[in-house]
Write a structure and sequence with these properties.
Strand order of the largest sheet of chain B: 1-5
Strand content of chain B: 5-15%
Order of helices and strands of chain A: EHHHHHHHHHHHHHH
Distance between the termini of chain B: 76 Å
Largest sheet of chain A: none
Largest interface: A-C, 37 and 66 residues
Distance between the termini of chain A: 47 Å
Oligomer: heterotrimer
Structural class of chain A: mainly alpha
Shape of chain B: elongated
Number of helices of chain B: 11
Number of strands of chain B: 9
CATH class of the largest domain in chain B: Alpha Beta
Strand content of chain A: under 5%
Chains: A mainly alpha (326), B alpha+beta (275), C alpha/beta (441)
Helix content of chain B: 25-40%
Number of domains of chain A: 2
Number of domains of chain B: 2
């Protein structure tokens, strides 16, 4: 029996599941690095988070929403990995699971599932945990390469934490700030995903190669932040505003590459994405410099997420052959 | 204590001023309209089905108010029916003409069994889309596509896709004759017909204009233009290999006879029991 | 070399051009041909023959009825055995003239010599008359009668004649091969069209994945003043009229306007070849090049020279050893072609390809939830937002929203549906939107 359908009779080989798969592959180097530096306690967080997100999505879609099981598109795995990257090693399992529940249940499924959520689920989960359990969420284990069991791990402040508590006159060496290359490769304290800038860049290049994301959001995000903090640094000349440390440490790279680029919660047009990224960069700068928190990436992205519908409404392409920019 | 008082004053003051501004704005920008429009709108069912031919109930109300005696006679709310129209007439001081209640009938019986599929349609399950590129699944050029665009278009839940036949079924109790299905069906298979006395209607459930043999190849119950029905009642016309029974044919008198005479079963008669 | 392209949207399709290196071969004569009397946009032609008539190759079978119509000629010699409504590729009956093939007798007026006639003797009016009498229509697929296109409306002036040799569709190679093998004829066809339009220049646009055609035509055009080759990027839909004009001239055809509004006339290279044959050789349009291709359902893809009216099954049998593998037959390209219900449906003047897909490729993937990735917006060459059109349709055909989204500007290229990772049939929704908006008028 012949089959009949409307054109086009070809479809691009890339499916939602395929895209999520590529994102997961892009995140693998970072996952590997975090396990290498934080040992078994990082692995524990990653496994708990991924399993938790998939499980909650399955349960909610199956029993609460009574829709076809949506875990097959792997988006829950991506959310789980991202959430894990936002948590410190050694996070208690039950707290991680609470984060998963908030991320999947509140930020994603309550809005109607994939594609309908307004805020990035992983970030909502992280911010919820950060506000609910500030002590555990800022208990940073000192990274130690290939020291797997890491049981007697020391704690260490994050570079951004150090910068926050610096006063105007101190220098980098006084506060044991790591070197640039150390921050680039990994020896920085912080959450799992903040550990290695190199691994994030590797993932970024992979996603660009596979045409999963465009270069606009990460480049404009980091660029805007760099310009603002650079000016600030040049005007004040204080070490705590030193731009390279700000870019290499903390969640900026992670946020710019993996979280601000989330399809659903970023604008749909190129112009919109640039505006969104500039907004993220500016807000990150404001929060890092003027607020009580050392880190501002997650808040900046969440705030800009709220503006996405408006950006999408205003930044629309010009219709071919029509004069007005409608 | 002092702080509370100050807070109350500040917040209260802001709300007071906002209220004044809101009041001023609403007065300034209010649109004056004939109060009768609102009155009539409240009488209407407000389902915005478009059965009256207007864009919605509000549009209909506006037309009613604007209408004079002659144009008012042409306006009719299919959902509200005679009772609603009488109320509106009383409001505006017009006489309401007698309207016959209508019901949708499906002029096709190409069920999965009568008209089996000859190909598999794998695209978007929409009749309008499928009809644009091809025929019904049985290759009948005028047959039901069986994807139920009409079911989605019906605002009154009067249409359902039957699981056994694959075709839409009109629930005559729920159908108010708004004509949404008539407008959406790409094959123009629905027709609004008077309900008839005791719900008795007789019609040809086929629109195929192919020659008898070809029509039968695609569908067992196609009209083959055999002329038998035309011999029973001379009001029935056969054109383009297709018989059409006008609604003026007395269903009570001829219905059963016509249905029995039709060799393919294309003529449908809704008798007392079914109706 | 500068490569031209349009700025907005577009996609890259994996080329699937299996038959690109294969020379055009005559498909041969079937036993019977089925010639539809409507192979163009507009009214069907008026039938001039009756059952039992003997016809020759090139005999006029049906005469253009009105301005928007085209003549239909016999593609074979033999006897008219039936004039009836026959199921065509869409499944709907359409009137066809059925001819039983006997021998291969040409009308004596047709010049069958292989020489290329370079001299254009006819004047403007004669050219248009000859094009009219040969039943030439736009062979790119739209089927708009060519005489109307070369007769400029009052007050309009043509500045550019663009010959479309882009063929950005997947699988198809008919135009590619024609450009390689009939290069000089196409250039002369362009000069003839130039004369008819009253302009001096013609541009042949070819996309970069046809190096052989580019080479042959670039070399030949050196000998012809005013005919130039422009190489375009291979991007889909580079061959769409509006996009091609934008790429070559930088001008934008206004919304719902015609190319002539910006001084352009676009003709397919196949049409130019047909014009050459009509004017220089007195040969009406009764055969064309058809690509038969596909992936694993086709054993030997080929470019056939096919007589109009040949049943598609005749070609399929030659290229595919096991027809049970076929899941879908497509008339035209894989992006814009139509799936055929009936494998016996005839090849018409507009059929550029017959594609055979296997059962698996014939399936449409399951539609899943939109992930708002914006790929459809990026891909749309018209600057539309297909995802928004789809949601307006799902929202009970919200007509005001559809109008606001410029749905009627959609060129139905299918880039959005191709690129969508959620596999939403976006093009279907756009088409539905157009159907609903047109109903309002």
């Amino acid at each position: 029996m012949l089959k009949i359908s409307t054109a086009p009779h070809l479809n691009s080989p890339l499916s939602t599941r395929g895209i999520m798969g590529h994102v997961i592959i892009a995140m693998l180097p970072l996952a590997f690095m975090s396990i290498a530096y934080f040992g078994i306690s990082a692995l524990e967080v990653i496994i708990t988070s991924v399993a938790g997100c998939v499980l909650f999505e399955y349960l909610i879609s199956r029993y609460l929403m009574k829709v076809p099981n949506s875990t097959r598109d792997l988006s829950a795995v991506v959310t789980g990995l991202l959430l894990a990257f936002n948590l410190p090693a050694g996070m208690p399992i039950w707290m991680t699971l609470v984060g998963c529940l908030i991320a999947i249940g509140v930020a994603k499924m309550a809005f109607g599932g994939i594609g309908k959520n307004l805020f990035n689920p992983a970030l909502v989960g992280r911010v919820f945990l950060f506000i609910s359990f500030p002590v555990q969420m800022t208990h940073w284990i000192k990274p130690d390469l290939f020291h797997f069991m890491n049981l007697d791990a020391q704690t260490a402040a994050t570079p951004l934490g150090i910068l926050k508590h610096m006063d105007a006159l101190s220098t980098a060496s006084q506060h044991h700030l790591p070197q640039y290359w150390e921050m680039f490769v990994g020896y920085t304290g912080g959450s799992l995903g903040e550990v290695s800038t190199a691994a994030i860049l590797l993932g970024f290049i992979y996603m660009l190669w596979k045409k999963i994301i465009g270069w606009e959001i990460p480049v404009y995000y980091i660029g805007t932040f760099l310009i603002f903090i650079g000016i600030h640094w040049l005007l004040t000349g204080e070490t705590r505003y030193e731009p390279m440390t700000h870019i290499l440490s903390g969640g900026l790279m992670l946020g710019a590459v993996f979280m601000a680029t989330d399809y659903t919660t970023s604008p749909m047009t190129r112009r919109g994405r640039i505006i969104f990224a500039i907004g993220c960069g500016f807000l990150t700068y404001i929060i890092r410099i003027y607020s009580v928190y050392p880190e501002g990436v997650s808040f900046a992205i969440l705030i800009m997420n709220a503006f996405v519908p408006i950006i999408d409404m205003t930044c629309i392409p010009r219709v071919f052959g029509s004069k007005e920019r409608k | 204590m002092n702080a509370i008082v100050i807070n109350i004053l500040i917040v209260g003051g802001i709300s007071f001023f906002s209220a004044i501004i809101l009041y001023w704005v609403s007065q300034k920008f209010s649109v004056r309209e004939n109060p009768k429009i609102k009155k009539i709108e409240s009488l209407l069912p407000n389902v915005n089905c478009g059965g009256c031919g207007k864009a919605g109930c509000r549009d209909f109300a506006q037309s009613c108010v604007k209408a004079d005696k002659e144009t008012f006679a042409k306006l009719y709310c299919t959902v509200g029916g005679q009772t609603v129209m009488e109320k509106i007439g009383r409001e505006l001081g017009f006489e309401v003409a007698e309207h016959e209640a209508l019901v949708a009938v499906l002029r096709c019986n190409g069920t999965c069994e009568n008209a089996p599929s000859k190909f598999e349609y794998v695209g978007l399950k929409s009749c309008r889309m499928a009809a644009r590129i091809t025929t019904s699944q049985s290759e009948c050029p005028t047959g039901c596509v069986r994807f139920g665009d009409c079911v989605k278009a019906c605002k009154f839940g009067a249409l359902k896709l039957s699981k056994e036949t694959g075709m839409p079924v009109v629930d005559t109790d729920k159908c108010i004759g708004c004509g949404a299905c008539v407008r959406i069906c790409p094959k123009q298979l629905f027709e609004l017909r008077p309900r008839g006395k005791n719900n008795e209607r007789v019609y040809v459930a086929c629109r195929n204009t192919q020659k008898g043999a070809e029509a039968r190849k695609n569908c067992k119950v196609a009209c083959i233009a055999c002329q038998k029905c035309a011999k029973i009642c001379n009001e029935i016309k056969i054109e383009n290999n297709l018989s059409y029974i006008p609604s003026s044919v007395d269903a009570q008198k001829y219905g059963k006879q016509l249905a029995d005479a039709c060799p393919t079963g294309a003529i449908h008669y809704t008798g007392k029991k079914e109706g | 070399m500068k490569k031209y392209t349009f700025p907005l949207g577009g996609i890259h399709i994996n080329k699937h051009k299996r038959s690109s290196g294969l020379a055009i071969i005559p498909a041969g004569l079937p036993e019977t041909v089925y010639i539809p009397i409507r192979q163009h946009i507009g009214s069907p032609a008026k039938i001039l023959v009756k059952k039992g008539d003997k016809v020759k190759v090139g005999t006029l079978l049906a005469d253009a009825d009105g301005v928007v119509s085209a003549d239909i000629h016999s593609s074979v010699s033999g006897e008219v055995i039936k004039i009836d409504d026959i199921i065509d590729d869409s499944g709907y009956p359409s009137t066809m003239i059925v001819i039983k093939v006997e021998g291969d007798d040409y009308e004596p007026s047709i010049d069958r010599s292989p020489d290329i006639i370079r001299d254009i003797k006819d004047d403007k009016e004669t050219i248009i008359k000859k094009i009219q009498a040969s039943g030439i229509v736009g062979m790119g697929g739209a089927g708009f009668p060519t005489p109307i296109k070369v007769t400029l409306p009052k007050g309009k002036k043509a500045e550019y004649l663009i010959l479309n040799g882009i063929e950005c569709e997947a699988y198809l190679t008919a135009d590619d091969r024609l450009m390689v093998e009939k290069a000089e004829e196409i250039i002369i066809g362009a000069k003839i069209l130039n004369k008819a339009l009253g302009i001096q220049n013609a541009i042949i646009a070819i996309d970069e994945n046809k190096p052989e055609a580019i080479k042959v035509l670039s070399e030949l055009t050196r000998r012809y003043v005013g005919v130039n080759v422009r190489v375009c990027k291979s991007k889909y839909p580079q061959g769409a009229e509006k996009q091609l004009i934008k790429a070559i001239t930088g001008r934008e055809v206004p919304s719902r306007g015609l190319p002539i509004d910006v001084g352009c006339v676009v003709q397919n290279v196949g049409t130019a070849y047909a014009v050459y044959e009509a004017v220089q050789k007195n040969k009406p349009l009764f055969e064309r090049v058809v690509t038969v291709s596909g992936d694993d359902a086709v054993d030997n893809p080929a470019n056939y020279l096919v007589r109009v009216g040949t049943p598609a099954s005749f070609l399929i049998k030659r290229s595919c050893s096991d027809t049970s593998r076929i899941g879908k037959i497509i008339f035209g390209g894989a992006m814009m072609g139509t799936a055929a219900v009936n494998s016996d449906a005839p090849i018409t003047k507009l059929t550029s390809g017959v594609l055979l897909l296997n059962d698996l490729d014939a399936q449409k993937p399951q539609e899943t939830a939109c992930i708002r990735c914006g790929k459809c917006v990026e891909a749309c060459p018209m600057g539309l937002r297909p995802f928004a059109i789809a949601s307006a349709i799902k929202n009970n055909d919200d007509l005001n929203e559809l109008r606001r989204l410029h749905t009627l500007d959609c060129i139905e290229c299918g880039s959005c549906a191709y690129t969508c990772p959620a596999k939403i049939p976006l093009l279907d929704y756009c088409k539905l939107g157009k159907i609903e908006l047109r109903k309002q008028k």
